[in-house]
Design goal:
It is a single chain. By secondary structure, this protein is an alpha/beta fold. The chain has a domain of 239 residues: NAD(P)-binding Rossmann-like Domain (Rossmann fold). It contains 13 helices and twelve strands. The strands form three sheets. The protein has a seven-stranded parallel β-sheet, sandwiched between helices. Helix 2 runs parallel beside helix 4. The N and C termini lie far apart (51 Å). The mean pLDDT is 94.
């Protein structure tokens, strides 16, 4: 059995679904079910004995210790995190509590559990920590992409809290010998993405006839990674990664935000054209940029390809088409996740950003 934390969120739920589609090894899924954690993401696993879901917090030491003792997982994949930059600007404390204190308490529980293992079980155990490229800071246009040796220069409360969690994981390996692995990924997209991030927000707003808010000049560059490619990379690192190592996971797809929005509009024009023939591009609205907005991220994913033979299967063209098709085919899911709390958040974030 493996333990997956944050397994009802966007990336975590995709990982759990893909894992159980490819193996019969059970998953113990621990998720706090905050606004972005949604058990409906896992509805196809209802009644599946291979999937054990527990609602709880990685910061609840007693709960984590009990689950480890009861289920004896051979590995832990830690997705649990607050992950939205804009939310971290409006309310950083949740990010400090979950990403730093939560990771610390999880590591303490895991250290005690691993310390009690013996023989092959102790030798084979792994703790895989899933992190982000945002810990490296921002790149200038001419800078080379982030590699694993880049200095950490986080610029938001979110990325600072994730950087702190990465350092804790590294320290627990160096000090205590805990067999850890860390992955730092670029921007994910794909099915089950909560509609506050750029791609799902643009799709949802476009179909609802609402403005498509683009920060600043829209020329912020990100590397885009299809979520199922990310999941396959994590499986590969868990299976064959060198203990103590960091692996950057990217899609080799650097694109400015405005190009992403225009691509989405073109796909929606094709797949769900408006009755009057007008393009969804007419809904684009440039709004005030967010504070401290990093200009460019880019991932050099050559190490994971060189050492572990992994590279993404999807191009951006194939992945973004699949993503739009998924949202068009799952409007009921979108409607149900758009709770009052979600609508209040969008209002808070965008109400003051006049065109």
């Amino acid at each position: 059995m493996i333990l997956v934390t944050g397994g009802a969120g966007f990336i975590g739920s995709n990982f759990v679904l893909d894992w159980l589609a490819q193996t019969d090894e059970p998953v113990l899924n621990l998720d706090k079910l905050t606004y972005a954690g949604n058990q409906e993401n896992l509805v196809t696993l209802h009644g599946d004995a291979r999937h054990i879901f527990v609602q709880g917090d990685i910061g609840d030491s007693a709960l984590v210790e009990r689950l480890l003792a009861q289920h004896q997982p051979r590995a832990i994949v830690n997705f649990a995190a607050e992950s939205h930059v804009d939310r971290s600007i409006h309310g950083p404390e949740d990010f400090i509590q979950t990403n730093i204190m939560g990771t610390f308490r999880l590591l303490e529980a895991v250290r005690a559990y691993w310390g009690g293992l013996t023989g092959d079980l102790r030798q084979a155990f792994r703790f895989l920590h899933v992190s982000t490229d945002e810990v490296y800071g921002s790149l200038a246009k001419e800078d080379p992409a982030f590699c694993e040796g880049n200095r950490y220069e986080p610029n938001s409360p979110y990325s600072a809290s994730k950087a702190a969690s990465d350092h804790l994981v590294r320290a627990y390996h160096h000090t205590y010998g805990l067999p850890v692995l860390t992955t730092n990924c670029s921007n994910n997209y794909g099915p089950l993405h909560f509609p506050e991030k750029l791609i799902p927000l643009m799709i949802v707003n476009a179909l609802a006839g609402k403005p498509l808010p683009v920060y600043g000049d829209g020329m912020q560059v990100r590397d885009w990674l299809y979520v199922k490619d990310h999941c396959s990379a994590i499986r590969r690192v868990l299976a064959a990664g060198r203990v103590g190592e960091v692996y950057n996971v990217g899609g080799w797809n650097e694109m400015p935000n405005i190009d992403i929005v225009n691509t989405l509009c073109a796909l929606l024009d094709e797949m769900r054209p408006k009755s009057g023939g007008e393009s969804y591009r007419a809904q684009i609205a440039y709004v005030t940029d967010r504070p401290g907005h990093d200009r460019r991220y880019a991932i050099d994913a050559s190490k994971i390809e060189r050492e572990l033979g992994w590279k993404p299967s999807e191009t951006f063209d194939t992945g973004i088409r699949k993503t739009v098709q998924w949202y068009l085919g799952n409007q009921a899911w979108v409607a149900r996740v758009q709770s009052g709390a979600y609508r209040e958040w969008v209002q808070t974030n965008y109400a003051q950003r006049v065109a």
